[in-house]
Amino acid sequence: MEYVYAVVILIGLYIVLAASFNLIIGYGGLISIAHPIFYAIGAYASAILSRDYGFPIPLAMLAGTLIALVASIMVALPSLRVSGDYLLIASIGFQLGLIEVFKNASWTGGAGGFTNIPAALSASVPREVYVAIVVVVAALAALLVRAIAHGPYGRAMAAMRDDEVAFSALGRNAVAMKVGTFALGSALAGFAGAFYAHYFRFVAPEQFDILQSSVVLTMVVVGGIRSTWGPVVGAVLLQALPQAITFLNLPPAVLGPLQGLLFTGLVLVFMFVRPQGLVSAGEVWSATRKGSEHARS
Amino acid sequence: MPVLEIAQLNKSFDGIIVADGIDLTLEAGRIVGLIGPNGAGKTSLFNLVSGIFPPDSGSITLDGQSLKGRKPYERARLGLSRTWQNLRLFPSLTVLDNLLVAPRHYAGESLLRLMFTPGSVRAAEKNDRRKALDVLERTGLAAVAQRPASDLTFGQQKLVGVARALMNDCRCLLLDEPMAGVEGQAYQTIQKVVRDIAASGVAVCVVEHNVAFIRDLCDEGVFMFAGKVLARGAVGDLIADPRLTELYFGT
Predict the structure, then answer these.
(1) Is the reported ipTM for this assembly greater than 0.85?
(2) pLDDT band, residue A71 (cuts 50/70/90)
(3) Domain definitions of chain B by residue range
(4) How far is A283 from chain B (nearest CA, A)?
(5) Contact of A51 with A115, CB cutoff 8 Å
(6) What pTM value is reported for the model?
(7) Interface membership of A184 toward B (CB under 8 Å)
(8) Is some CB atom of chain B closer than 8 A to the CB atom of A162?
(9) In this complex, which of A148, A162, A181 lies closest to B90 when CB atoms are compared?
(10) Contact state of A172 with B103 under an 8 Å Cβ cutoff
(11) What are the backbone dihedrals phi and psi of residue A123, each rounded to the nearest 5 degrees, phi first?
């Protein structure tokens, strides 16, 4: 059971990651792939504050989320003021740089990782409670992104993606909206990171590297960019598939490359066969679910 | 007091002069037509006023407030509205939603307001919707309100561009070739809408090559050539001036 719980929790956390990344890259149209670094910030910050500074866990998780939020604003604000292209460069630089810090600093546990993170729940509480909490958080995250994307803010994001110059000349502050979108998406990732840290009780730098970026991107693209349930489907599928492959009893030397091939292969296949992803979003923005289905074809 | 006041405005791109010491004022309730051949700097003047690019020198004031250093969105929030020669509608939004993102102040663009005062956002949305439906009614677009903007005929899209600009409750409205490619009913509708908006006290400026439209609609004409304002007066007089006609049609 322990194994199944771990898989379900990972799926739940990746749903949060994929849904929030969909907000940034899909709805916001912001090109960045550094999403896992904000997951890392949430995880490390919450872990360090609770283990080494005696923060109660809920407070540490909240702090981790806020630190991810502030860090994302610090990356996005200067680059987005110049142009959208700089966000990609600045965020990758930030991701690679910060991972080096995690690898080399003593207060992060270095390359060996940060261990003995306090558990969120005491041993007497059944594991199912944590699983249930993560599942609820995942559902709420997907629904929050959906509410934003199909509300007044989402309408404005759609207009901004269509024509930013016309959008600005109507009185809309495009830079503020982009920074806000990036910050909210990154804060959600940080929140997911905090959940990760206090369940698995161990974080290491390589868990958040550029390969993870491609995993989250694949979930959004294969699942269906700019759709509510696409990233959810993507997260379930791309977490469950690699787990299923491990049951094939292949030698580790084959298993590792096989998973990499699987992800790359999926992206390639989808690019040719179904570029809109498994769940396709409507071409025309709509405030209601009905409308987005109407546009499907 | 004029609504929009442009003084000694200069702008050049790599030596090509698009604004050469332009002085121009627009008054409330009056419609001014900008005429001149292609490349005279008419659209560039609109871009300078709306802040798409900054002037090299000179000043622009709206209701006495300097626009210097203000971004396009800040100018729109002060009550400056415009349309575009090439429409620039939002193709992935319906006609109604094209209007709903265009009010002078849009409550829904702030995540903080959505989070902490969702009620005020809902109230603003309701107001904006009522207003948008009214504008669509006036522009004869009510029947296509729920259609994607990209589905409409070119004439209807022009109307959407004008309707969207009206959501601002603007003080000054700049219309860039609202009539190019427009025929039939839409032609009459745009004329009426522009007259009504001017009558409500808005300063209107129209760039248009359709001389008949300018003559019927505008209180005054301004003739531009090579980034300069050469003449200002009754449209009929400008058209009759052989010197200007020669510049317009070239030789």
Answers:
(1) yes
(2) very high
(3) 1-79+170-251, 90-164
(4) 6
(5) no
(6) 0.93
(7) yes
(8) yes
(9) A162
(10) no
(11) -60, -25
